[in-house]
Structure formats: structure tokens, C-alpha cells
Amino acid sequence: MTSRYATLVARVLGLPRPLLIALDVDGTLAPIVEDPEAARVPRHTRALLRRLSSARRVHVALVTGRSASSLRKVVGSIEAWRAVEHGRVIVPPGRSVPRDDLDPAARERLASFERWAREHVVPHGGRLETKRASRAVHVRSLAARDPDEAARLLRAAAIRARKIGLSPRPGRAVLEAEAAPGDKGEALDAIRFATRAQGVFYAGDDVTDRPAIRRAVRLGGIGVFVRSEERPRAPRGATAAVAGPEGMAELLEELAGGLARRAR
To answer: Cα-atom radius of gyration of the chain, to the nearest Å?
Structure first.
């Protein structure tokens, strides 16, 4: 191998089996776009995920802030574990998403935040995304033309979320108000336990991925940060960094090839 990620791929291939390959989606597999609903994992990357999921003694997991239905639109049909809503809900391959477990009080807090966002954020250029246990305010397109206003809306959304009893979760040009917070690090550990994986690889691009990156490293595995213009520096404790979804696709292609050669 002669690529820029040859050493990193060799380290992943050297991890013990079964191997868990867990990946964030937006900013890691799918390029970030202004409208989150328009994001898509490129066809070539989807094919790589299928190759990896079919490899012997390898488990693939998609660990995302998206809902299960939104994830399917972005990724398509992949035989993989799904940890959605920042790991709050974990779905094994081939299984359906469990029924909503929120109580009426939590639903009302979400409805209250949604009403506030439609009145105070959407008219100013923000977007509102609804999930089962959270509401997300996106300001990416607004930030491109008025970064100060975008920052103001995110601050206001965080204040409003706390005031009504929701947990604010900041991200790249987004603030998510959660009724039942998830944790990607805990989700990674739960999937590792369920699959009995001995080797763990995780890659993600945002602050919400840091718990999973750190958890992978603490487990003796590899935690990779996916760089972007917004977040160019890898967090402390990350094993390595790659250059955006394009770099991640390059790494996955070499990894899939390496696994195939070892299976011969």
C-alpha cells in the first residue's frame, strides 16, 4: 500500500477479530450540505460499506445523530448495526426500530421547543428537524451569509432548551434539544458487547463523536477524527485524522481491499 493512509489501514487490519467498524455518517461518510435532508452517502462509499459488512468476522455500525428513517434516506439499505439519535436507540441488522418510549411530559417539552423554534428560528433563516426524542435547529445556510445571527440563534435555542427541561447538544451549525440524550461512546460499547468484538475502530467528525473516539482508544482500538474546515484539529486522544469524507472513503477502500486479501 502506498496511499497516505497505508500505516493507519495496516493498524486497523492488525486489530483482533471479531472487528467492529463503527462510523459516524454526516461529515464522515456523507459530505456536509446546507439542507440536512439533501445529504447522501456517495454510491462508491455505500458499496464499500457493503463490502466491509460482508467480510468475515467484521461488524459494521453506523452511529449517527439522525433518526432511523432519516439515516435510511442518507445511506440506503446497508446490513449494519444502527445507533441512531446519538446512540439513544440501537438497532441490530435486519431489525425494526423499537416503539417510541417517551412519556407525555417529554413529548410536551419537545412540542414546546418546536413551537418556539418555528416562531423564533425558522423566520430568521434557520431550519427545524424533528426526531422522536429531540428537535434540531440547523443554521448552516444562514451562517454562510450572517454568522453572527446564526450564532445568536444557536445560543437562544440552547437557553430555551434548558429552560423547558431539555438537554442542548451543540454540533456543526446545529443545536439539538433532547428529551432523552444519547451517548455515542456508550452506544459503541453496547454494540461491541453485543457483537463480542475484540477489535474496535471508530471514525467521526464532530464534538458528539469524541466520546466514541475516546472509548475506542481506551478499549485498545483506533479512534479516527475526520477533519473539516470548521473543525480542522483532531481532539486530544484521537489515534489519527483523515481529510473529510473523501479521505474516509479512501481509507475504507484500502481497508476493504486488505480484508479481502487476508480472507484468501
So the answer is: 18
Q: Interior CA angle at 245 toward 240 and 250, to 5°?
A: 70
Cβ pair 175, 161 in contact under 8 A: yes
CA distances from 67 to 87, 129, 150 (A): 10, 10, 24
Q: What is the pTM assigned to this prediction? A: 0.87
DSSP state of 123: G
Mean predicted lDDT score pLDDT of the chain: 93
Query: Roughly what angle, to the nearest 10 degrees, separates helices 184-195 and 210-218?
Result: 40
Please check whether residue 95 is in contact with residue 56, taking contact to mean a CB–CB distance below 8 angstroms. no
Using alpha carbons only, what angle is made at residue 220 by residues 83 and 67, rounded to the nearest 5 degrees?
A: 10
Residues 6 or more apart from 84 whose CB is under 8 A from it?
A: 64, 65, 66, 67, 68, 71, 91, 97
Place of cell 474496535: 200
Bond from prior residue into 18 cis (ω within 30 degrees of 0): yes
Grid cell for residue 173: 451549525
Write out the three cell numbers for 59: 461488524
* CA 123 remoteness from chain centre: 28
Summarised one tens digit per residue, pLDDT across range 47-71 is 999 999 999 999 999 999 998 989 9
Catalytic residue among 24, 189, 205, 206: 24
Q: How far apart are CA 106 and CA 112, in angstroms?
A: 10
Question: What three-state secondary structure class fits 154?
Answer: helix
Beta strands in 124-250 (DSSP E): 127-130, 134-138, 167-171, 174-178, 199-204, 222-227, 240-243
| Residue 24 annotated among the catalytic residues of the structure | yes
Q: Which amino acid appears at position 139 of this protein?
A: V
Q: Are 125 and 146 in contact (CB under 8 A)?
A: yes
In order of 22, 231, 236, the CA distances from 49 in angstroms are 11, 25, 28
